[in-house]
Amino acid sequence: MIKILSAQQIRALDAYTIQHEPISSIDLMERACRAFVGWFTERFDETQKVAIVCGTGNNGGDGLGIARLLKMWGYPVSVLLIRGGTDTEDFKTNLERLKGKVEVIEIASTDSDLFSRYDIVIDAIFGSGLSRPAEGIQAAIIQQMNQADVIRIAVDIPSGLQTDKLSQGEIFKADFTISFQLPKLAFFLPANHASVGEWCLVDIGLSKAFIKEISSSHFYLTSKYIRRILKPRSKFDHKGTYGHALLIAGSYGKIGAAVLSGRALLHAGVGLLTLHIPQCGYSIVQTSLIEAMVDVDAHEHFLTTLPSLDKYTTVGVGPGLGQDALTIKAFGKLLEDFRKPMVIDADGLNILSANRELLRTVSPGSILTPHPKEFERLVGKWSDDFDRLEKQKALAKQLKSVVVLKGAYTSIASPDGMVYFNSTGNPGMATGGTGDVLTGILTGLLAQGYSSVDAAVTGVYLHGLAGDLAAREKGMISLIASDVIDFLPAAFKKAMA
Ligand SMILES: NC(=O)C1=CN([C@@H]2O[C@H](COP(=O)(O)OP(=O)(O)OC[C@H]3O[C@@H](n4cnc5c(N)ncnc54)[C@H](OP(=O)(O)O)[C@@H]3O)[C@@H](O)[C@H]2O)[C@@H](O)CC1
Ligand SMILES: Nc1ncnc2c1ncn2[C@@H]1O[C@H](COP(=O)(O)OP(=O)(O)O)[C@@H](O)[C@H]1O
Ligand SMILES: [K+]
Question: What residue stretches are annotated with the YjeF N-terminal domain (predicted)?
């Protein structure tokens, strides 16, 4: 798991590394420059004309160091320098080291067309030290960089983008952001995608001991972390070891949702599965999920009654359920009677939004899996992505449950205030039914005895990984929800290897 640190914590990490490695600040900067250049030279050849736009802080210092190294590699490089603010010591040293090697053009206005003769523009105006919105000359130059027909690359973080709070003013729109060692919270928020582009981390050897000790409430999931959670099977295990899940899903016209969730649940390793479905779904489910048992509702078309709940380890409820008045009543009774953690999705969430008194009865430790629209119905409109994140944390705390907000970087908020951002998944999964698949996986993991947070984190990761493996074979456009299930076994194998 990778910790996501605040701008202030990153500054402390830099300072700690300098003091305790020990390494001089300028040598650490040189390491950062080399790491950036390592990434750059693997992708672009020496025919590319490069402009590096530098401020006068340490991000600008990085830019100057990068210019010197790229020149040594044989790239045609110019530095465009924007004065203003106090020059940092390392900036001054790197400017001195550049003398006679690379052309440095000081820019004080944007009257002329600055970038048309370049192929690539590297942004080193502001890094994590941005203290206020970019304005004046910096803002005008960022705007010109954004309009130029070039490949845009940001050093550490796009200029104008705040590391851990709401950004305003002009922001560099990177195609690539090469970030030092740790990702920034801003990278995971939908509104920043146009600024951050594709991001990657380069290791600059910041203190691992410090990172280990420092507390953070935001994390980025890694395969290593998931590997540690997943439990291998043991010789004398039997189906009773892996729980009996009850899946309550489907209504007339939406029995497919129950089948998708049920199939995913089985492949997620549950011991036994019973589906509770309306009568119209009986033959469909019995034929398509021969490993599952079926319990049939009193109603032909939707949920109105509940089976006896005693024998079930956990319940997954919501996909394709509909919101008939009788369904709402049965759902309310389910929440009242089943007091163990369960997974609530789709119409289960919509019923909660429309019948808010039911929120009080959500069993602690449950997992709620809204997509953004369902989340808005639950918590109301948010002013920006940071507000959305706060609302997600607040709901998790209020319900003492895990709130999984689905999207490109699905975020998983635990009741104790932690947020985990998923690292797997792709836009090929933006297709009907993939959410139902996730519900099945999460219910399957809960049934097997994983804690709610472990089940949520692992399930979301595996769901995205299965989607990635499926996309590799099928392509993103043709990918459908069933493909995600088909690749779930491969995802488990890969995650446990
Ligand atoms: N050893 C290390 O620490 C390492 C650091 N590294 C690199 O350092 C970067 C952080 O550097 P940094 O802290 O110097 O801040 P940086 O982002 O360059 O900007 C600060 C300057 O900009 C100014 N300023 C801010 N906002 C402004 C605005 N809107 N408009 C105008 N001015 C504004 C601000 O002025 P002030 O707020 O003080 O008035 C100050 O002068 C980090 O992202 C990474 O690239 C790596 O080399 C690894 C080793
Ligand atoms: N661009 C994307 N990148 C990664 N994952 C995505 C993307 N778009 C959708 N997904 C994933 O696909 C699933 C969609 O769920 P949902 O919207 O509930 O679909 P449905 O209701 O049709 O089943 C979520 O797990 C989400 O994270
Ligand atoms: K930058």
Answer: 10-212
**What span, in angstroms and rounded, lies between the C-alpha atoms of 235 and 238?**
9
CA distance 66 to 370: 44
What's the predicted TM-score (pTM) here? 0.97
**What is the structure's pLDDT at 389?**
98
Q: Could you read off the pLDDT of 454-481 as tens digits, one per residue?
A: 999 999 999 999 999 999 999 999 999 9
DSSP H or E segment with residue 411: strand 411-413
CA 13 to ligand 1 centroid distance, Å: 15
Taking CA atoms only, the protein residue closest to ligand 2 atom 11 is 429
C-alpha distance across the termini of the chain, in Å: 17
Residue 77: phi and psi, rounded to 5, are: -125, 140
Domains parsed from the chain with CATH numbers: 2-215 (3.40.50.10260), 223-496 (3.40.1190.20)
| Segment 367-381, tens digit of pLDDT | 999 999 999 999 999
Using a 10 angstrom Cβ sphere, with 0-12 exposed, 13-18 middle and 19 or more buried, the burial of residue 130 is buried
Distances (CA, A) of 131 to 8, 126, 165: 11, 9, 11
- Whether ipTM > 0.90 holds is yes
